[in-house]
Amino acid sequence: MKDRQPTVTILMADDDDDDSLLVHDALVESRLPIALHIVRDGEELMDYLSHCGLYADANKAPRPSLILLDLNMPKKHGLEVLKEIKNHPQLRRIPVIVFTGSNAEEDIYNTYNLGANSFIIKPGNFTSLVEVMKTIGKYWLEIVELPL
To answer: 6, 60, 100, 143: which has the fewest C-beta neighbours closer than 10 Å?
Structure first.
């Protein structure tokens, strides 16, 4: 197992402010060395990753080590975004965890077929969310070697 990394960037794409706030609070509670950046829709996610528009300054939009992606977002659906990321030569190596309220079998199959690294159904309470964030952090940030 590798030593604890310095602060790591996680990019979360979710249009639900409550969910974003809960994930933020869960990460704080889990005491993981994570800088969470939040975008509200699929177009904003792609702008962030491409350093366009509001995210033209790459220093304000650091490359994420991990993406938490909701499926049901405005402007550009999560499946569309996942397909774009996994077909892009520079972005495809960023692990994408689909983090959604959906438990539809079709969504699970579609996300894995498009190259998602994990599919997690959002927990129903804060305690479970903290445990999920700790588990994500332990696995993706302490055990797995991520590409730079």
So the answer is: 6
Rounded to two decimals, the pTM is: 0.88
The Cα 79–Cα 86 span in angstroms is 11
- As a whole number, mean pLDDT of residues 113-133 equals 90
With left for phi above 0 and alpha for psi between -120 and 50, is residue 75 left, alpha or beta?
left
pLDDT tens digits, one per residue of 62-99: 999 899 999 988 889 999 999 999 999 999 999 999 99
Write out the DSSP string of 121-145.
EPPSSHHHHHHHHHHHHIIIIIISP
Mapped onto helix, strand or coil, the DSSP state of residue 42 is helix
CA distances, 92 to each of 15, 65, 71, 87, 95 (Å): 23, 12, 18, 6, 8
Token digits for 20?
């974003």
Q: Cα 49 to the chain's mean position, in Å?
A: 12
Residue 112 is inside which H or E element, if any?
helix 105-113
Quick one: tokens of 84? Answer: 């774009």
